[in-house]
Design a protein that fits this description.
With 219 residues, the chain is of the alpha+beta class. It is built from five helices and 17 strands. Strand 1 and strand 2 form a beta hairpin. Helix 2 crosses helix 5. The two termini are 21 Å apart. The protein binds magnesium ion (MG).
Length: 219
């Protein structure tokens, strides 16, 4: 099935082109996983087949016992850019969303030890939960907004976007030095501290400051 970006309060739909993710973008989260603060963000991809929406079920793969939630700000790219300046990078961002980068931490830890790629821990079906998107022309992001995630009504993650090491335009500038970004690309911008294990039956509720929400059950 073709996966689409849904624009909030609008009939507009944008086909998802590709999904690029950065990791290690909030200092306290880097420390909670025992990683080092990088000079540049860690970059990986998720396939479009991993995408689900608020209201859908997150499915626990049978090869993991430790799926973690990672709540993240998403960026929507609106035009083709390569080797963009910071200004061009900012202009290429046309909207914002909320996402869950579901991660199999036990599998990822094994892959890291072996120096292997992370796909098995990051690319499984239902590992990319996305909200509706708001367009930049309708909402100016200040980074004073707060990301939060509750599991069964208990707060696990809650931090201001201001805590990002690499801010949205810096992320886009850097990514465009590696690969061409195009209309319909989604960028996951990393997660704040508080990631933790989810169990089957858990109810997840994520928010971007009341602007955007996600509700999912783990199956
Ligand atoms: Mg992440």
């Amino acid at each position: 099935m073709k996966k689409e970006i849904v624009i909030k309060n609008s009939d507009q739909r944008i086909p998802i082109n590709k999904i690029v993710c950065v990791g290690r973008n909030y200092v306290e989260h880097i420390y909670e996983l025992g990683n080092e603060v990088p000079e540049k963000p860690v970059v990986f991809l998720k396939p479009n087949s991993a995408v689900i929406y608020s209201g859908d079920e997150i499915v626990y793969p049978d090869y993991s016992n430790e799926m973690h939630h990672e709540v993240e700000l998403l960026l929507l790219i609106g035009k083709t850019i390569k080797n963009a300046s910071l200004t061009e990078a900012e202009e290429a961002i046309i909207g914002y969303g909320l996402g869950l980068d579901m991660t199999l931490r036990d599998v990822q830890d094994e892959l890291k030890k072996k120096g292997h790629p992370w796909e098995k821990s990051k690319c499984f079906d239902t590992s990319a939960v996305i909200s509706e998107f708001i367009l930049k022309k309708d909402y100016q992001l200040t980074l004073e907004e707060e990301l939060s995630l509750k599991v069964n009504d208990e707060i696990r993650q809650k931090d201001k976007l201001q805590k990002m090491i690499f801010k949205p335009a810096q992320i886009v500038e850097y990514l465009s030095s590696i690969l061409t970004l195009e209309h319909g690309d989604i960028i996951f911008t990393g997660t704040p501290q508080g990631v933790s294990k989810v169990n089957k039956g858990d109810k997840l509720h994520a928010e971007l400051d009341g602007l955007l929400t996600i509700d999912c059950i783990v199956k």
